Amino acid sequence: MVTSQPTVFLNPTDDKGDTMKATQQLHDLGQSIWLDNITRDLLTSGTLKRYIDELSVTGLTSNPTIFDHAIKNSTSYDAAIREKLKEGKSGEGLFFGLALDDLTRAADLFRPIYDRTNGVNGWVSLEVSPLLAHDTASTLAAAKDLHTRARRPNLLIKIPGTREGLPAIEEAIFAGVPINVTLLFSREHYVAATEAFLRGIERRIAGGLTPDVGSVASVFISRWDAAVMDKVPHALRGQLGIAIAKRTYKAYRDLLDSPRWQRIYNAGARPQRLLWASTGTKDPEASDVLYVKALAAPFTVNTMPEQTLKALADHGKLGEILPADGGDCEEVLAEFAKAGVDIDALATRLQGDGAASFVKSWDELMAVIASKSAALEKAA
């Protein structure tokens, strides 16, 4: 049964009478703010700690593109690369060594939050090689290996919710590996991902294992609007991603109300939380906090690029929270259908394009690792 939800006041005050930042408002609403970035400089400069203390950041995600930019545009990794070269590491093995160094440090920084919230927040995410997106067995093996090597309870392993990724997600959950299901673009993608999660949990319960395995399902938002920006009437710009999110949020809330979920919750499981990904605005005409303001909702996570996080803290204001019944999403999606947008076909294309873009970033990252390694060995 869907209950009514209150409106969020635009400028609430704290107990001292001071106006709260929108980041604090969002946190108090019940939506988690995770940073969609990781660099060694963020860790060593104390900036990530400041975001935790001042901007209500309670988690962090990474992907190949983020690491590609971090290593390519900085000398901060050079010393660590030299050390790993001395250990005989190269290529992919060297990269995962660097990534695990960063993410275990970040996990330790978030560990008090993880402990305090009993595992609701305080997570960091590391992705398996995107080259494995269509290889179920190798994806599962890589997920288990990275989780074992990290030795941190608050590390989520990212596995794409592709057709081949779904069985690996189920098996990883069954094996007790916390999973961030990535590259989801639609309600149907989300439902398939949560089915894989539920099957893994139900198998754990049947096997007498603890069902408390952390997971989030990451639905990408802004890429929808970028894909149709110049193909629909101007009045529809900036509305497709939000309508898809509303439709997906309804499916999520319906699941939480379902007897199936309540049975496994009663056995000790916790929800696979819905996460909004790709929430940086790509349309120059749109507000820089468009997808934050529109997607404020309890029981969810918004993982924000650093620029979006800063914009929210600086000038963001919240409006009404996302309706649990999906609000006007079907009416809006019908308008896009009239404009010639095939939602199902576009969701399939966006997931394929997303997987391809991660492979491209991975290839670029491996090239950066190789060139830096060669330069540092030559200079030694």
3D structure, described in words:
By secondary structure, the chain is α/β, with parallel strands linked by helices. 54% of the residues lie in helices and 11% in strands. The protein has helices at residues 22-29, 40-44, 47-54, 64-72, 78-86, 91-116, 136-150, 165-174, 187-206, 222-228, 240-256, 259-266, 290-294, 306-315, 329-338, 343-379; strands at 32-35, 57-60, 124-127, 155-160, 179-184, 215-220, 273-277, 300-304. It has an eight-stranded parallel β-sheet. Strand 5 (179-184), helix 9 (187-206) and strand 6 form a beta-alpha-beta unit. Helix 6 (91-116) packs across helix 16, helix 7 runs parallel beside helix 8 and helix 11 packs across helix 15 (329-338).
Main attributes of the structure:
380 residues; disordered N terminus; 16 helices; alpha/beta; single chain; 54% helix; 8 strands; eight-stranded parallel beta sheet
Quick overview of this protein structure:
The chain has helices at 22-29, 40-44, 47-54, 64-72, 78-86, 91-116, 136-150, 165-174, 187-206, 222-228, 240-256, 259-266, 290-294, 306-315, 329-338, 343-379, and strands at 32-35, 57-60, 124-127, 155-160, 179-184, 215-220, 273-277, 300-304. The chain has 380 residues and is α/β, with parallel strands linked by helices.
Class by alpha and beta content? alpha/beta
Low-confidence segments: 1-11
Compressed to H and E, one letter per element, the order equals HEHHEHHHEHEHEHEHHHEHEHHH
Assembly level = single chain
Strand neighbour order, sheet with most strands = 2-1-8-7-6-5-4-3
How many DSSP H or I helices? 16
Task: Give the tally of β-strands.
Answer: 8
Content of β-strand: 5-15%
Helix content: 40-55%
Largest sheet: 8 strands, parallel
Shape assignment = globular
Mean pLDDT: 93
Q: Kindly provide the radius of gyration, computed on alpha-carbon positions and rounded to a whole number of angstroms.
A: 21 Å
The span between the termini is: 66 Å
